[in-house]
Amino acid sequence: MSDGRLPVRRRWLRWTIGVILTFLVLAIGWVTVRGVGAVHDLQQVASSSSKLKEAIGQGDLERAASLSSRIAHHAQSAHELTSDPIWTGFGFVPWLGPNFSAVSEVATIADDVASDALVPVLDAAGALDLASLGLSGGTIDVTPFAEIEPPLAEASDTLSAAEERALRIDAGATLPPLADAVREMRSTVTQAATIVGSLHGAAALLPSMLGAEGPRNYVIAMQNNAELRSSGGIIGAIALLHAENGRITLVQQASVPDFPALDTPLPLSEATVALFEDQPGRYLQNLTSVADFTEAGPAIAQRWQDRFGQRVDGVIAVDAVMTKNLLAATGPLAFGPFTATKDTVVSQLLSEIYAVVPDPRAQDKVFEQAAGVLLSAALTKADPKDLVAALAESADQRRIRIWSAHEDEEELLAASSLGGALPIDDTETHVGVLVNDTTGGKMDYYTGAALSVATGTCDGEPTTQIRVTWTNDAPADAATSLPPYVTADGFYGVPAGSTRTLIAVYGPEGATPSHIDRDGVEESVQTALLGTRSAVQHEVLLAPGESSTITVEYQGTGAGERLTVVDHTPMIDTPKTTREELRCAS
User: Fold this and answer.
1) What is the distance between the alpha carbons of residues 474 and 486, in angstroms, rounded to a whole number?
2) Is 328 helix (H, G, I), strand (E, B) or coil?
3) How far apart are alpha carbons 405 and 393 in whole angstroms?
4) Taking a C-beta distance cutoff of 8 angstroms, is the pair 506, 530 a contact?
5) Interval 366-388: pLDDT, tens
6) 395 class by beta-carbon count within 10 Å (0-12 exposed, 13-18 middle, 19+ buried)
């Protein structure tokens, strides 16, 4: 006979389920309330960060200090709201978990950056007059840079760590709005890390490099992106700068014909010779084909020293597209037959000049004038803050490469993006695309690229797939409508209007190619070992309007990593790089 009560076991089960459900309801309510607060705080961080950038750009340090305090407050609040055990526990919930983890990581990164990077950077800004950056009458006062180096070092370390942490967030596993926010935050942190890292490098290197400890000579090589080479373009003009006690002067200008081809080529690495034979060793203009600027820089210095006898302390390579960034700081400038603005200078230097000034020698003179006018305006006319912004943007686009003959300086440069060394796989895995024109003209003004990377597994092996689509966008009548100097007029065996291009693709460190094709067809390729990276190179001949797609799959050490970055030759128009779903070509 029953007394109407459930058995003890069933009552215990219902009680347990009830407690669990109650806990879940409370927990969901807890994280919801805290999540709303954290999102509000992070929105305030984003809003104030935009205003902070504006304040620093205007040199308003008092407003910048106030905004940084507000950012630090909201970032700390967001971190505290998303770091308790309950929130952390929700990070392990299937499907929803990555969203909780991502918000927590974003809040932590914002807190670290606000507390450990903003304050040191503002301290450094206060120590250096933002209105002048020590620039007066073409001379840079290098004294303050020694004072700002320690706080910038602290800020650079914090931002580098924040960038690494941001790159580990799996944005692809989160909901679309959060994924977009993570990518935006990642881009912002990367940009800040690049700029502050460059500023720290400048603070550490500028005093000695600007001649504070003795006079220095630097060769500056100007690259023409209308005829592509690995680091940007063929060397079109070259000059010698002298730096002494912060004052920079243009000593001498020269052009490529001043450097005849060498009977005995300079000694170069096996990788360079495998990809480009002895051409870089014989011809000055081809030394920027060398993929690693730690190899190209000293070779350029040697060519200058052998030709003119002057001691060279370093080499700076810049490309023509960088002039667009500089003119944003200097304003319009006149050289040769042109008055250039930031919107017209690239087309004038890389396209119009060949129709307006058909004589190659006269073209060289215009390029020399442009270089001299730009240097003078940058040092005497540009707003220093705008000049720093232009240089930072150019460095971020890999349009500046620097090599120093002084070992301690070169060690710092080689470890930075300015050094132009081949990348090292660490937090990120790197692959790359190197583009070198062999048309012999200036047809790369009309070419373009689209790049993609995909990672996953093929045939049971971790795989990284790189695709490069190369296009000749020249007009159909390019053979007759473009100047012979632009098309090369068939002089090097390429039909006028067509392009012939060497496209090299290198993979992750330690990985080897498992599949190679062009437009779905396997063909013979050149191969080389760039350090520990395998590279394969196709020769691509395209008539106007044609395109071709190269696909390379790499397997082995480093392959298959989600955080894979595609480095590439700086081109006139930065190619679109996408991340695709892996479809095994093999």
Assistant:
1) 11
2) helix
3) 25
4) yes
5) 988 898 898 888 888 887 778 87
6) buried
